[in-house]
Amino acid sequence: MSENDKRRVLIVDDDESQRSAMAHLLSGWGYETQTARDGRDALEKLSEFDADTVITDLNMPNLDGAGLLAELQKSAAPPPAIVLTAFGSVERAVEIVRELGAFWYMEKPAQPRILHTILERAMAQSKLARHSQRLERQLSTRGELGGLVARSESMRRVFALLEQAAPTKATILIGGETGTGKEVASRAIHELSPRRAAPFLAMNCAALPDTLIESELFGHEKGAFTGAAERRAGYFELANGGTLLLDEIGEMPLSTQAKLLRVLEERKIRRLGGTREIEVDVRIVAASNRDLRECVAGGTFREDLYFRLNVFEVHLPPLRERREDIAPIARALLDGLNKRHECRVTELAPDVEALFSEYAWNGNVRELRNVLERAVILAGQGVVQREHLPPGFAGLPNHLVEATSGEVTLRPGVTVDEAERQLILMTLKHTDGNRARAAELLGLSVKTLFNKLKQYNEPEQ
To answer: What is the pTM of this model?
Structure first.
């Protein structure tokens, strides 16, 4: 079991027999335990034993359970605490839960089944809190937030805004050009929020026809329309308790905008064809590559919905306005692409990095990723060189096929089939016979490539 997978519990009780019995019980459930005889002893143990959860008796000498919790609350991220109390002290235990932030309380003797359930929930809360701390450390030390990477001052200001807004319940509106990372930013907001354990769903409003968008959002009952063969929950129900990203919301039809506004105000939905209202608790993040103020002025977006969504606005600057971010983003993307394609590309050649820093990147991070994906497949390992970049990229020569021995040319009048054959065989040679990589580079399936090689009577490699 790795260090991060361990689940540690500190048991605090002045009765040696009770804390020993508790430790034995929890060890049988797979927890790593440590015991302390009172609050002061517990604080000393915690300096060396990084507990995920504390189970403490309420009445103890030296420093009782309430005093221990008060001390724990002084730390930046106190572990969740379960308070055990004897009969007659329940009222005091409830006050401690409310005033000192204890996770729960239980009367002695604790019922094992109930204790196990509460302990598991406390562990889940502790795990989520630690995950949030890791994200915040990435933000402050490495300029990373979820999948976003930045060195530029403009993006660090964006990170600060996201970090401030994430723990709240506020609706967030994210603007920016296509490919700037609006969905990645939305996921980071969710991961830094108290909703991180609940679902995160993303719906692209531009990808759905007008006739289906309401069904996707709110769900439908069986028979609500032609083709509705069964009841179906919509995005709002599926994301209940979590976060829903409404991407490209500027493309949403006006009729649907009116219904969305009502849901945001009343927190209730009604499935298409249904009569019952369903309460939902969903945090909305809206994103658009269009200026919604211009859409409002043009009559394609409701002004009241715009104001309802624009509680907290964040704008992601385009890549060309933060060129110092290009190299670190590229290095971060290389890691993911290597895993995806089972390659071992380590870095960009200096002249490639210089080309990247001067290129306009009208498609922003998405375009950068696509260029790198092709380069990683071509390079396979080592360093991305100029010849691995797309033909015509940043003014590079636009040859039909380029090989290590030089340019490959095709004579006038050559048939399309022969041109295709030469291209396939040259690509296979370049990939050292790796058919999967050659097929991906050529935009073919492996099966199609295999069938074409059979037509050419090429031997299997």
So the answer is: 0.60
- CATH number attached to the domain at 3-129: 3.40.50.2300
Residues 6+ positions from 23 with CB-CB distance below 8 Å: 11, 33, 35
- Let me know: does 41 contact 87? Beta carbons within 8 Å: no
Q: How far apart are CA 84 and CA 90, in angstroms?
A: 9
CB-facing half-sphere around the CA of 335: CA atoms within 13 A:
7
CA neighbor of 386 nearest in space, from 357, 364, 354, 360: 354
Q: Which residues belong to CATH 3.40.50.300 in the chain?
A: 142-317
Write out the H or E segment, with its range, that includes residue 379. helix 364-379
Q: Which CATH architecture group holds 323-455?
A: Orthogonal Bundle (1.10)
Helix (H) or strand (E) holding 23: helix 16-28
Q: Which amino acid type is present at position 105? A: Y
329-384 confidence digits (pLDDT tens): 998 899 889 999 989 999 999 999 999 998 989 899 999 999 999 999 989 999 99
Q: Check residue 244 and give its pLDDT.
A: 97
Q: How many Å apart are CA 269 and CA 262, to the nearest integer?
A: 9
Give the tokens for residue 411: 């004579």
**Mean of the per-residue pLDDT values for the chain?**
84
Residues 81/39, Cβ–Cβ less than 8 Å: no
Distance between CA 46 and CA 49 in Å, rounded? 5
- Establish whether the linkage from the previous residue to 109 is cis, with ω within 30° of 0: yes
CATH 3.40.50.2300 residue ranges of the chain are: 3-129
- Which of 200-214, 322-336, 425-439 has the lowest average pLDDT? 425-439
CA-to-CA separations, 127 to 6, 55, 131, 218, in angstroms, rounded: 11, 17, 6, 32
Select from 2.40.37.10, 3.40.50.300, 3.40.228.10, 3.20.190.10 the CATH code of 142-317: 3.40.50.300
Written as six digits, the tokens of 89 are: 């002290």
In 166-299, which ranges are continuous DSSP H helix? 182-191, 210-218, 235-238, 254-266, 292-297
Neighbours of 314 (CB within 10 A): 21
